[in-house]
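ESCALATION

Customer reports they have been waiting on this structure for their group meeting. Please prioritize. Original submission:
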Amino acid sequence: MITWKDDYLLGIEEIDKQHQQLFKIATDIHELIRNELIIDKYDRILKLLAELKEYTIFHFTSEEEYMMSIGYKKLFSHKVEHNDFIEKINNVDLEKIDMDHEQYLLEILDFVLNWIAEHILKTDKAYTAK
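Update from on-call: job pushed to the front of the queue and completed.
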């Protein structure tokens, strides 16, 4: 499980807080998956996935507006990466969640956390480089 660390800070308070919130949502998903006291997790999983999707869209919009405000020249390619991520989240197979939610969600979570970490460290850091 990838956790938040200061290496992910960009120095833009609003965006840093949003990145931290994305990690928090991912942590909430992980904790739900691992909670053996909850038998039927399906509705809670759907709620957390919806939260992840909604918050990600909010964050990407905010980040893109910031890049536009500073005249970032690679905004279009950055936006393409954002759109690809949203498409992946939109294509989550709800049937797989219902049948083998733990394994499937761990795969989704692994994708999300790795993507976010890589995206922040490489793509996002590029628009903050002086």
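Sent to customer with the following note: The chain has one domain: 10-128.
Escalation resolved.
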